[in-house]
Amino acid sequence: MVQKYQSPVRIYKYPFELVMAAYEKRFPTCPQIPVFLGSEVLQESRSPDGAVHVVERSCRLRVEAPRLLRKIAGVEHVVFVQRNVLNWRERTLLIEAHNETFANRVVVNESCSYTVHPENEEWTCFEQSASLDIRSFFGFESALEKIAMKQYTANVKRGKEVIEHYLNELISQGTSHIPRWTPAPVREEDGRAQAALRDPGSLEADGPRGAPGPAPEMVVTDGDKLDADYIERCLGHLTPMQESCLIQLRHWLQETHKGKIPKDEHILRFLRARDFHLDKAREMLCQSLSWRKQHQVDLLLQTWRPPALLEEFYAGGWHYQDIDGRPLYILRLGHMDTKGLMKAVGEEALLKHVLSVNEEGQKRCEGNTKQFGRPISSWTCLVDLEGLNMRHLWRPGVKALLRMIEVVEDNYPETLGRLLIVRAPRVFPVLWTLISPFINENTRQKFLIYSGSNYQGPGGLVDYLDKEVIPDFLGGECVCNVPEGGLVPKSLYLTEEEQEHTDQLRQWRETYQSASVLRGAPHEVAVEILDAESVITWDFDILRGDVLFSLYHSKQVPKPGPQEPGGRASGPLTDKGWVLGVDGSRVEAPLICREGESVQGSHVTRWPGIYLLQWQMHSPPGSVACSLPGVEDVLTALHSPGPKCKLLYYYEVLASEDFRGSMSSLESCTSGFSQLSATTSSSSGQSHSSPLVSR
C-alpha cells in the first residue's frame, strides 16, 4: 500500500527572495537537522538571462532505525537525489526528490514548492507532498513503513523551524531585504539567441509568465488549500500526519462530492472518530453525508420548530459554557417523562428534536471559537439523574434511546467533549448495562459520573464549571431556565389512530408478550439463572383488572408448559405440592398493580437457579396464600366463567458478566461513583430490587 503525505500551506511572512536566501543556508550541511549528513551538487545550470537556476544535489541522510534493521539492510545512511528549479521571474522554487538507496525495494517521491502568497506578495507560501511505496524489505515492510513515516513527519516540522532560524539569522546580520530579480536590458536579436540556447529542462520550469511550473497542483488558489496558521488557530494543534489526512480527505470531497462540502471542523471530527484512518473516516463521512441529504438535516435549524408540548416537558436546554469555553447543555433526565413524551409526540419528533440540539451545538461551537479566539469543536453535557427510576426502563423508551445514540454516534462523532452525570441513583447501573455497549469507547472515556452529593466540592462540578454558572438546583447560584419536565398529562397523548399512522403501536406491541390471568390460574414465567448477580428486569402494562405481581426463587424445576421465545416456560407452571418456604422463597414483596398502570422493575439475583415471575388476580387483603395455586385450581378456573385480567409484559436477563462489567466501567469513569457501585454490588449478600408503578 502506498502511503501519502500532504502538508497544509505554510506561510512565511517574509518576501520570497529573503526566504530563498534562508533556504540556501541549509546547504551543503545543516547542523539544525541532525539526520542531514550533507550534500553535493551533481549538476547546475542557469538560463542565459539568469532568471532560472536549476540545481541537482545528492543528499545523504542518516538512518534512524533499530540496530537490527540497519544491520540487515547493511547501510547507515541513505542517498536522495534532489532537483531544484528556482524561477526568479515567477518567484517560485519547485523541488523534486527521490531515493537512490534501495530504489528497487522502496520508492520515495517528494514534491515541494515555495510560491508567492496570492493575496500578499510580501509573503511566501510553502507546500509539501510525498509518497512512500515499500515493495519488499526483508520481511520488515510494516516496521519500515512506520519508522519512515514517523521520521518524515518529524523532519517536516523541523524543516519550517530551520527556515525560520535562518531568516532570523539573516535579519540579525542586517539582511532584511533582498531586491527582486530584474532582467538585464538586451537587444532584440540577443533575446532571440538566448531563447534558442536555453536549457530544455529550464524551459519547462520557466514556461509562460504566470504559470508556476510543472507542478500546478502545488499552486495556492483561494478556497481549495488549507493554511497551517488557520489550522492552528481554528482547528487546534494537529500532527503533520493528521494535517495530511485532513487535507487529503478535504481534497477528495472537493473532487467527488456533488453537494455542499462540509466545514473543516466537521471533517476533522470524522477523522478523529476513526483515529485518523483515512479510508475508514471517508466511509463514515460519506454515509453521514448521504443520511444528511436524505433527511435534509442541513435545513433542520431553519425548518424545525418543536411542538409546544416538547418545549414545556422536554427537560433540556443550553446554559452558558464550561470552564474550557465549551457550550454547556443541561438535561434533567430524571425529571423527564420519556414514556409520556413518546406517547404524546412520537419517537420521530423526539429524534428530530435531539438532532436539532446537535445541530445547534455545532453552531454554538463555531460562535465560541470566534468569541474566545481558540478552537472549540465540542460541547459539554450535564445530566441530572435525580428522580431516575424504573419508569425510565420502559422498553420502547430504551429502544428509542438506543436508536438516538446510534444516529448521533454515526453522524455527530467527537462533538461531545465531556459528559457530567450527577445524582445517579441505585437504578442507574441497570440502565447503564443496557445502553453502554452501544456507546463508542472514545465517548465512554468522556463520562464523569457522580452519585449522591459527590458532585459538590473539589473533584466535582467546580473542576469543570465556573461557580457562577452552576445551576441553582445543584446548589449553585445561577438561575437555570431549562424546563423542569414533569409528567405529561394523558389527555395530551396521541390517539391510537395517530399512533397507528406512525406505525408506533405495532412496534411497541412487537416488544411485549400478552397474557390472561384468571382467578386461581396465574400467569408464570420461569427464568433460569446460571450465575449469581445476574439482573432480571421486567416491564408490564395492566390492560384490565387488578393484578398481584411476585417474584420467587424455586428449588425445583417447574413442569414443562408453553414455551416462550428462547425456550423459557410460561403459563401456570407449579403444582399444588409447591410450598412457599420449602420448595422456594419469595424474593420480591408482592406488588399490587391496578388496571391502567405500567410497572417497571429489576432484581439482582442472589443465587443461581429458577426464578418465577408470577401475575395472579388480586385478592382482598389477608387472602394471599402461602403456597402457589395447584393444578386442580387452575383447571377449575379455566372451565369456570369469571373475571379475567389482561396484561402485556416484557422481561430481560442481564448476564452477571455484563452487569459486573458495566459496574467496572462505571467505577473507571470517576471515583465519585464508587459509593453507589459498592452499594449495588452488595447484591451478592442480599437481593436488590427497584420496582416502580407508573401510569
TrEMBL record:
Superkingdom of source: Eukaryota
GOLD domain residues: 509-653
Domain CRAL-TRIO: from-to ranges: 306-482
SUPFAM superfamilies: CRAL/TRIO domain, CRAL/TRIO N-terminal domain, Supernatant protein factor (SPF), C-terminal domain
One Pfam entry name: CRAL_TRIO_N
Disordered: annotated span: 186-217
Ranges where the PRELI/MSF1 domain occurs: 3-175
Annotated SMART domains: CRAL_TRIO_N, SEC14
GO cellular component: cytoplasm
Protein name in UniProt: SEC14 like lipid binding 5
Organism: Suricata suricatta (Meerkat)
